[in-house]
Amino acid sequence: MTDPAITPELVRKHNLTPEEYGKLKAILQREPSYTELGIFSVMWSEHCSYKNSRPLLKTFPTKSSRILVGAGEENAGIIDVGDGLAIAFKIESHNHPSAVEPFQGAATGVGGIIRDIFTMGARPICAINSLRFGPITPEPGSDHADLANNRRLFSGVVAGIAHYGNCFGIPTVAGEVYFDKSYEGNPLVNAFCLGVLRHEQIIRGRASGVGNPVFYVGPATGRDGLAGAAFASQDLTEESAEQQRGAVQVGDPFMEKLVCEACLELLATGAVAGIQDMGAAGLTCSTCETAARAGTGIEIDLAKVPQRAPNMTPYEIMLSESQERMLIIVKKGREAEVKRIFDKWDLPWAEIGTVTDTGRMLVRNNGEVVADIPASQLADEAPVYQREAREPAYISGVRAFRLDGVADTKDPVEDLKALLAWPTIASKNWVYRQYDHMVRDGTSVCPGSDAAVLRIKADSLPESGAEPTPGSVPTAEKYIALSVDCNAAYVYLDPYEGGKIAVAEAARNLACAGAVPVGTTDNLNFGNPHNPEIFWQLRESVRGIAEGCRVFDAPVTGGNVSLYNQNPAGPIDPTPTVAMAGTIEKPEHITTQYFKDEGDAIILLGDAIDTGDQLLGLGGSAYLQRIRGLKSGTPPRCDLTREKELHLGLRSLIFSGAVKSAHDCSEGGLAVALAESCISQQVARETPRLIGAKVDLTPLTTGSAPQPRLDALLFGETQGRILITVSNLNATKVLAQAKILGVPACRIGTVGGTALEIHTNAGDLKSNVADLHELWWNAIARAMK
Amino acid sequence: MNFAVLQFPGSNCDQDVVHVLRNVLGHSARLLWHKDKSLSGPDAVVIPGGFSYGDYLRTGAIARFSPVMQAVQEFAANGGLVLGVCNGFQILCEAGLLPGALIRNRSLQFRCEHVFLKTLTTDSPFTSQVPAGKLMRVPIAHGEGCYFADAATLARLKAGSQVLWQYVDAQGEPTEIANPNGSVENIAGICNEARNVAGLMPHPERASESILGCADGRLLFESMIQALQSKKQKAAA
């Protein structure tokens, strides 16, 4: 088979600009071969090189005393959690593949991120995800076909995540799902995985040790997923869906489970010098990156690579994104251990090359050289662009928005019910009941509270080859809390403030669970960066996230950038998803969001309303979107310093043992937060534990003139507010304690009864909690029937 | 006691069962590889949940042919205690050690949630320690947990008190709404006629520690341990 001639047209088809092609030729000092053109094309795609976002990513805080492996060093960052233990975690997008083929697209997204974690030597112990779809319930202007397609994508993605995670045996313990018109045709699928390991078990993705053999393990290479990384770095169009179906990989979680177990078993032997998964850009990326990191060279022969399809070309083998494959650099002389373990697991393996000292990635096919590229220049010297940024035209309209033309709520009960039944706010049980969220015996707080809580036990860790030291202290149990957050409406309306809020909300959710943040991973989902207005959104939200992570001392340990998220109707709302991990010191600190006992006092921590905000917390709110059909107004302001004081205060109260429940106020404001605390505890199938509350908000507004609007009081989304309950006996003490801690605190009610009653100076709300529960719990199932 | 926990390619609750037996209950438990031809003398065998052989063909259909299952057949025939959880239950049905079959959930979706289980008889080595009237709260996590058996088999199961657990509501009633997968007569778990082999879809090993929110599942393992201990005492006497 002859390779096609390299023409400007072919270069363009590979998404390389004439300038980039010039740079490529300068590196090679000659014209590239067809295979080499393909290799550069995927390595210099946004997905692999971050060429449009790298200057911004450098502004993230990435250091702390706990960081063992930092951002960008390896496949995932690693954080010390004490007692010789560490956690490895990362989030990654699979948006474009999921748009084209939701089931496989989402499934392989989960597979890819799990591989990134066990590649570090860690045992994956849980997954979470962040999803975005077009609306699944009728909205003004929505048409039937769009709704049906949104539901198809939603159910396909959820089924794909369930299929992969459940079969692999990883609990999917938390997540978020939003539905908005801007994601129609371009859903977002961000998958996160966390693993645990001992410090000494950290392994690097480095081709170190000249002369060491290079092994390929896992299933054979096929034509699936050809150039998926390049596909992910283009706008989605009507045609692309059809044309690019071949760029979607097909996942096999059973194979991944075997590869994971075999790799962890092999790593325990100490025979491995370096390991890297073949994810985006497959064999290409794994070979040149491992060599570049080690400052070595690598030489492989494609004829030795197990192949699933006949007559595959070098170009196809190098660019295939067939799943569940790993590249392992083995210490010379210890090859037999690889063979023994992979034979035990009945997995294919092949010795395909060696580590060299040439600094070059040399690829042969049956001895004939098909690519010869300086590895570090390919991996590390991708072009970097400072894109132009310009404030979008719509922003001035957003800033000018006032509430004058918006009448106050006429029926707060109906509005509350509508918000609770809005799929973005409604219970996500239809989603998480499809995920195994308890396998591995570590899930201490299941989905349905502010943050998931995981228990790490000694046997959660990967096997260690070393004999345990006699008399050594058994590994202490650890508790990890996780949350993933991003209110993209806020980010759209004010990317900087929205970025800060995404971080603050994640940290607040962790605080509500009793946890201290230790690190962050982010997934920047944006439209086409060549549009200066999109690039401005990206730049501003990165500025907000960076500031937030600094304040909460939760450095970014890695993440993912997904650009070109747009469909013919326009770009998605900017969605910089923030996933944060925290540690909980003692099991008795673990706190959940639901009200516990009749008679408990309900206390609001934080200011009821930010009176300095002209929109009183209603800008960008769920209330304006759902009830008024408006996505406008400056979002609520986030004062990071006060937010941090609030979290510290809450944790002090939790540590004192007084706090029985804690729930943050986010979408839908105080009324929705109160309702959720009444209705979100699920004892068992079809058995919620419902409990009412009597709330009086008049003390919050006494003396304020003018009196705030009822909709702002109930549904405003002023930041920095947390609802807690304490026993009636402790209430006075807790209020005094909060005062000393400098946190505004006010007793607003008492838990009990069968109704949620809220009394205010501007009007009252009363509803049976069983009715609220039914609307909230079944809303998504109803939409999906 | 000395437990053997089978490990097939694709098992994923194997380590959880070992954890509960070893670290929570303080007994000896070890993994047995699917290619092993001998069980090496355990007191009881647990077949854990997961997706043995990737659930290819049909859940449990390939596992029944594995070398280790031939040894389990013999162990069971000699009266050894065998418990199958989730995929382990599916394997026991495929292997003919338990009657009936497990088919796709009626919802056609995977389901993971807590359920209430009513123990129908304490006359078995798997239920003896369950207090009368106690409802156990235990999670399920499966896509193919709808228990099915023909009328004659069902009649035999009931006549022999072989139905050990039923899905019930919080009041202990086996209602349709309490049934998470469409199982006939809300059946969650059964035993064989000789009462030494049992299988259930819910996961007792995920409900054996208060840090996980519930410890009712321990009753099942404690029943097995009690049965093994009295057997040993009898043998010694």
Descriptive tags:
heterodimer; A: 785 residues; alpha+beta; Phosphoribosyl-aminoimidazole Synthetase, Chain A, domain 2; 30 strands; 36% helix; B: 237 residues; alpha/beta; Rossmann fold; nine-stranded mixed sheet; two-stranded antiparallel sheet; 5 helices; 24% helix; globular
Describe this structure in words.
The complex is a heterodimer of chains A (785) and B (237). Chain A has a domain at 593-785: Phosphoribosyl-aminoimidazole Synthetase, Chain A, domain 2, CATH 3.90.650.10. The longest helix of chain A has 25 residues, at 144-168. Chain A has 28 helices and 30 strands. Chain A is α+β, with helices and mostly antiparallel strands and 785 residues long. Chain A has a seven-stranded mixed sheet with strand order 8-10-7-11-9-12-13, with helices on both faces. A seven-stranded mixed sheet of chain A has the order 23-27-22-28-26-29-30, with helices on both faces. In chain A, strands 1-2-3-6-4-5 form a six-stranded mixed sheet. Chain B is α/β, with parallel strands linked by helices. Chain B has one domain: 3-Layer(aba) Sandwich (Rossmann fold). Helix content of chain B is 24%, strand content 25%. In chain B, the strands form two sheets. Chain B has a nine-stranded mixed sheet, with helices on both faces. In chain B, strands 5-8 form a two-stranded antiparallel ribbon. The longest helix of chain B is centred in the C-terminal third of the chain and has 19 residues, at 218-236. Chain B is globular. Chain B starts with a strand and ends with a helix.
